[in-house]
Amino acid sequence: ATCGHGCKYGECTGPNKCKCFPGFTGKTCNQDLNECGLKPRPCEHRCMNTHGSYKCYCLNGYMLMPDGTCASSRTCAMVNCQYGCEEVKGHVQCLCPSGGLQLGPNGRTCIDIDECSTGKAVCSYSRRCVNTFGSFYCKCQLGYELKYTSGRYNCVDVNECVTNRHRCNLHAECLNTQGSFQCKCKQGYQGSGFDCA
After folding, report:
1. Structural domains in the chain?
2. Backbone phi, then psi, for 30, in 5-degree steps?
3. What is the CA radius of gyration of the chain?
4. Model confidence at 165: pLDDT above 80
5. Spatial separation of the C-alpha atoms in residues 92 and 77, rounded to whole Å
6. Predicted local confidence at residue 27, as pLDDT
7. What span, in angstroms and rounded, lies between the C-alpha atoms of 63 and 186?
8. Where does the EGF-like domain lie (predicted)?
9. Which of 6, 80, 92, 178 has the most crowded Cβ, counting Cβ within 10 A?
């Protein structure tokens, strides 16, 4: 295969027949191909023809993605939210995965809401509120323990007198109360119950 006029930006594939490299056109592949004029257009927003190639540009507020498309520079990927985000009408907002978390001052990270101190948590009388990150749980009050009775878990009074969890004096009687206990000095002794003389 010989090409009398040569193939400037291509290769000779047959008698005076040129196969042009990408970005070039013409009988001898000596003309630059204006990719910006092609249909469909190679760029989403702005296109600039260059020698043998082209460049894509995006309008203000957008950035060029690797595939040549233009993405809003306010997309979730750019905002860098801690847990996730949503785009609503071009506006990006970070999200928190639970109702027990709220967006921090930077608008990207989530901070804990203390449901126990804000009064959002409601625990039954025998339970106390314990705050956790993003939530809370109700723990048995001091003097109560969690027991499985009648097919469910309940906080049941601990009988400190039976379990020897009391600090009553040797000469005192232990009296169990709901959630606690009392010490009473035995007959012939007097004092607080913790001290008997």
Report:
1. 1-33 (2.10.25), 34-112 (2.10.25), 158-196 (2.10.25.10)
2. -105, 0
3. 40
4. no
5. 10
6. 92
7. 85
8. 32-71, 112-150, 157-195
9. 92
> Residue 191 pLDDT > 90, yes or no?
no
> What is the structure's pLDDT at 143?
84
Among 157, 160, 187, smallest CA distance to 172 is for 187
Res 21: pLDDT: 93
pTM attached to this predicted model: 0.46
